[in-house]
Write a structure and sequence with these properties.
homodimer; about 450 residues; alpha+beta; BirA Bifunctional Protein, domain 2; five-stranded mixed β-sheet; 17 helices; disordered N terminus
Chain lengths: ~450, ~450
């Protein structure tokens, strides 16, 4: 059993023998602090996509199994959570990625949708692979796609949205690298080396696996595809040396990246080919500079997929960014906000925290005042403790990062305290508190 | 085959024979307009829960099957999407409801969590039932729970949050009724009728099904539980006549509802017992007044569930509101925002829509200006058409509900048009546009 499996054993599923139930292996429980961090990422993804002119969509969490066996490639098919209802005749699978759903949705309405289609989504995806650092069985992903525009301009606009998100998270172009390849440019090299078109798929799969293979194994697999070591080295050199000056596709891509103001983040690198079978043109991967984590994001052009799913020919380009690696990178670099800042970012910071001075009439006024503040649209919390130690209760107010504390002094008035400045306002009438807070 | 099945047949799963792929039966595709409406509901749920002092959490989309077979009741177990990986030994199920996950999460950390725990979540759930009006196989649900507080005050605080959401959607207390029952109050009547405690579960199930049963069938099933028609009528009368004056639990609940300012929305009705097996105290259902739709929301107290899942005894009360019935109600009543208002509500309205006057130097300035506006945090869209008909392009700007249109006049200047007032500002320098828009 590999060590990763020992780190993520399937927990005891049953609570029957006194052992508590646990989440399935590779799936996560999001307690409030975890959830606030996830929400921070989701909010940033949404805002970035909207700013770049994308509309949000979503599809089902499970699809017909066939949707994935058609074209996603073996890597994903082997990792599907698939299922069939007892007595049913249809096989389903939890979605392992979003692109097939997207292509299906575009195919179904292709004629009525104005082009270009610019869509994004934020959702959960599932792969039954071995859980390990940066890889879980359930994860969240941001998908961003432009369909109906075959230009390098669209490629660059997409990449600009990806860069916009990275920048928004506080990352900079010396910490992050977008390595951009191009399957069409690689194919033109394949043609020079007289590789048969029917073998392109296997060649892309080999080039994609290359960084993970020992040199001997790489040479061995190339030999199986009919290349001896010398010819393989020549092919490697041709791929290494391809630049914007030797290839038209790379040249127009490079100039569009320049024009969109993102070229400081990008490096042309034809060794990037991506694993999925459906890519046809530009492909890219986002990594930390010198980092050991898996890719933060990846994507590319898939001009044939909508047609394959029954729609008209529709050029398309897209990328996905997952939450797992991104979270690791942001936390390692101290870029994940905390405390009041985090709550501010996700609009979850309490406006006001109410306590009473412990007198009976103050206690009685607490809940009705809270209810009234909430009805007025304010985020109001209150203590559930019954101590008369106001100092302790003010600490409770601070620890939940409320902007203001209210100490109810009697049935009719309170003290309003700004918890950031310490400023206090005494004798504020309780029935004027809403106006005071909104003013 | 019942008529509902004909309305929702399983679509052809395969695109192989030229037929387009479709979403699975009972699952939905959310195109941008559908998604904006869903987002409107999700945002309102989130804001309401935060305002009422709840923290957001989430759990896995699938759980160990056992989590649901322990205590959710047969109704849900029969409708589970359950699955097992090829070669695996563990049975999983797509979550049909959130409460078991919540109880599991609380049980796992019960000792370190300050009480009361006030949590909410917004997520997708799955039931393999026959799709029909108001019921789908995948749906979204807002779950709101208070744990560690056994008081009627907590029951009322929870109900106030539910009412807060309904009010926020524009519904009023003459359109909506929260019918509130109480299992403890019903049990005290059961005791009066000398029903054995071991039969309470069957009795609750029968009372829950009563509105759906023919009278003869109801009497027949009561007989099987040992009650003749006369005794059954006496029990019905006792349930009908129970009020706050005859029962202590109902009395303190009623006074807390009054105190929290929500009693105009509520009616005490002991015929409400809810279907799930785990409820122990107050239970409630939310319906349109005189409406024919299924329940908009429902919930109740489940004081034993956390302990059942391996945690310490922890009183708990919660409710869930689904998106499917709620959407039908809001749309039927014209309460679902549209167009610019909808985009405003979900913060998705474009700040600015850029077009060029068709001159070459204006065209060239378009994309770089858009990129700069987006980098500055503005939601900027632009035309992809190349007509010189500025009037047509301005219509495009209006139809996407942008606040402003920018007509690029040459390489350096533009006209800025407020699309709400029609007001125009000419000769705005392109490099001052960001400042102009932010000012």
């Amino acid at each position: 059993m590999p060590p990763e499996d020992q780190k993520f054993p399937e927990p005891t599923p049953s609570g029957r023998h006194g052992k508590p139930f646990q989440a399935p292996r590779g799936a996560r429980d999001f307690y409030p602090e975890d959830m606030a961090r996830r929400q921070y990422i989701f909010d940033a993804w949404r805002k970035t996509a909207l700013r770049h002119g994308f509309d949000e969509i979503d599809g089902p969490t499970f699809e017909h199994l066939d949707l994935y066996t058609v074209k996603s490639g073996e890597g994903i098919v082997n990792e599907l959570f698939s299922f069939r209802r007892a007595g049913g005749e249809t096989d389903f699978a939890l979605r392992p990625e979003f692109t097939p759903t997207l292509a299906r949705m575009v195919a179904a309405k292709a004629n009525s949708l104005p082009k270009p289609i610019k869509w994004f989504s934020v959702g959960n995806f599932f792969r039954a692979e071995r859980p390990q650092r940066g890889r879980l069985r359930e994860f969240s992903q941001w998908n961003v796609d432009i369909l109906g525009d075959e230009s390098a301009e669209a490629d660059a606009e997409l990449i600009a949205c990806c860069v916009g998100a990275l920048e928004g998270f506080g990352l900079s172009s010396d910490q992050i690298r977008l390595r951009i390849g191009h399957r069409a440019a690689v194919e033109s090299i394949f043609r020079r080396f007289e590789i048969a078109e029917s073998n392109y798929g296997e060649w892309f799969a080999l080039l994609d696996r290359k960084p993970k293979l020992e040199q001997a194994e790489y040479v061995n697999q190339a030999q199986r595809l009919g290349f001896d070591e010398k010819r393989m080295k020549e092919l490697d050199a041709a791929l290494d040396n391809a630049t914007a000056t030797t290839d038209d596709d790379l040249s127009s891509l490079a100039s569009q990246l320049e024009r969109t103001g993102v070229s400081a983040w990008t490096t042309i690198d034809l060794s990037i080919v991506r694993g999925l079978a459906y890519y046809t043109g530009m492909v890219f991967e986002v990594h930390e500079t010198g980092g050991k984590e898996r890719a933060i994001a990846g994507g590319g052009r898939y001009d044939n997929l909508v047609e394959l799913f029954g729609g008209p020919p529709t050029p398309a380009v897209g990328f996905a960014m997952g939450d797992v690696v991104l979270s690791l990178v942001l936390q390692d670099r101290g870029l994940m906000p905390e405390g009041a800042e985090l709550l501010d970012k996700i609009d979850a910071r309490p406006d006001i925290f109410l306590i009473s001075n412990g007198q009976e009439e103050s206690e009685a006024a607490l809940k009705p005042t809270v209810a009234e503040l909430r009805r007025a649209g304010l985020h109001a919390r209150h203590t559930h403790r019954t101590t008369r130690n106001v100092g302790k209760l003010l600490k409770e107010a601070s620890s939940c990062h409320a902007r203001y504390a209210v100490i109810i002094e009697n049935a009719a008035t309170c003290t309003l305290k700004n918890l950031e400045t310490g400023e206090e306002k005494k004798d504020v009438p309780l029935d004027g508190l809403v106006v005071e807070m909104q003013g």
